[in-house]
Amino acid sequence: MKVQLVKLAHGRSGDKGDTANIGLIALQDEFYPALVREVTAERVKQHFTGICHGEVQRFELPNLCALNFLLHESLGGGGTLSLMTDAQGKTFSTALLRMEIEISAEEAQEFALPQY
Amino acid sequence: MKNKIRIAGGQGFWGDLPDAPVRQVEGGPIDYLMLDYLAEVTMSIMQKQRSRDPSAGYAKDFVPLMKQILPACVERNIRVTANAGGVNVEGCAAAVKEVALELGLAGKLRIGIVTGDDIMANLDSLLARGIELRNMDNGAPLSTVRDRIQSANVYLGAAPIVEALDKGAQIVITGRATDTGLTLAPIIHEFGWAADDWDRLAAGTIAGHIIECGAQCSGGNCQYEWSSVPNLADVGFPIVEASPDGTFVVTKHERTGGWVVIPSVKEQLVYEMGDPHEYITPDCVADFTTVKLEYEGRDRVRVFGIKGSPATEFYKVSISYSAGYKAVGTLVYSWPDAFEKAQAADRILRTRLNRLGLHFDLIHTEFVGANATHGPLAGRPSADIPEVQLRVGVRGDDRAAIERFTREIAPLVLTGPPGVTGFAGGRPKVEEIVAYWPALMPKSEISPRVEIVEV
Q: What is the per-residue pLDDT across B7-37, written as a single tens digit (0 to 9) for each?
């Protein structure tokens, strides 16, 4: 079944030049393996089509049950060069939470997600 | 040796809550107050201020703040580390000394001054010797923008701040210094950690990273259950309680709002993160994949397990350069067909700019309310959307073209789609763009200087 990331994760995003970083953190530690499996660099690149014009890198932080993504060429030049409202990528983390991922029936049961 | 010291974060950026440092001093026991003032392009603003007035060029707000808190700091031996000096550290220290004398604190404190970060005067000699200062983002050599540079500073680390504290400075004022160094230095000073004690230096660095953005680790901008964060109106700024073994607790004063919870600390840990295995500072390389967190009580998160590795041979350099001009114009369109009207206005505007023969490096349109934050991910807005703000920005080297653009916004009110308002602010302002050029340079080229001013 499909579930939107907003039910499984929270996060924070920021900038370094024209690169946005998104830290994606499992809301509960048990959700982390599903994030690692489903939220790949490729999926994130595809999700940000039209926004991220460069490479997407992913790093794992199992100690925090978190993933860190670097989205290169995403901020209209970055810093003071950018003409974007969100030149610092502050809202990229919530944009990622729109993504839907596939989880198994067993996971759905184990996660016991609240019904929204 | 103390077995615990409390370092309070008082500013997350220049312009953060003005009363926060005062509340950190008055709200409970602390040993150090850490104040970060310098964003990436702040130095260029300060450089401009100093070119107009030789006594300016530092974080002006720091001086009245010191006036307010110095008596309490002296009485309770709270020491301050701040990168408030900008491009005029001596001027900042002189102003603080004047305030201290006014307060009758003559003979009662020392001010430490850390300089040596400013390499503006050495740029040509560095370039001539083959130090190219290539842009870390795109690899271009600095020579391509040499004639447009406005400021150039290396990020100094904890070492010179430690030296100033060792010499008895109650207040240490630096120019460009890393925000993590402002927190790490007091810990090194108190606990006498060795310069190659990489694990503990990494721990102190991560402590600095957690509190360097002020309340962003104590409930501010917290996505996790944001609507449950208590009393943000009185948000408590963070405090690190550091121990000699390299572990520390993140907390805040009692009876303040916000919260220090594992999710709020995690959110700050991943903020502006690159490769988490290699968080590089002048002091060490910290490995964020080793950080462990646990609760030690209400609003107390214990941080431990941190590993580090040796510092690199390089300083990061922050260079600012003039990169043309920009302007942004906005108008608001109302229901019905708010989105369609804003889109039509954008098309009309672009047609007119085109006919005028104006050339820009970039024209960027956003529809605030529909796509300004999530772009195409937001999907098409509801047909019933009550209002949309059209926001058009242009950028280029030709100031006259940008000026001409600013005169094309208001006329849309009478010559474009209906149901439009929101032009009370007048013509958009043309801004000079001061861009940021990150580079690396060998540490051997830099000699940080520490001076002590007796008040």
A: 999 999 888 999 999 999 999 999 999 999 9
Residues making up chain A, counted from first to last: 116
C-alpha to C-alpha distance for B41 and B291, rounded to whole angstroms: 31
Which residues in chain B are contacts of A59 at CB distance < 8 A?
Answer: 273, 275-277
Is B447 in a helix, a strand, or coil?
Answer: coil
Chain A segment 86-105 residues within 8 A of B by beta carbon are: 86, 91, 93-95, 98
Nearest Cα of chain B lies from the Cα of A59 at a distance, in angstroms, of 7
Residue B28: DSSP 8-state: S
Q: ipTM value of the model? A: 0.97
Q: How many of the other CB atoms lie within 10 Å of CB of A1?
A: 10
Residue B100: alpha-carbon gap to chain centroid: 27
- Tokens 């039209």 correspond to A50
- Cα(A32)–Cα(A43) distance, integer angstroms: 16
Tell me if residue B78 falls in helix, strand or coil: coil
For chains A and B, count residue pairs whose Cβ atoms are closer than 8 Å. Answer: 125
Q: Residue for token digits 């830290």?
A: A23
pLDDT in tens, B200-254: 999 999 999 999 999 999 999 999 999 999 999 999 999 999 999 999 999 999 9
3-state helix, strand, coil in chain B (%, to 5): 35, 25, 40
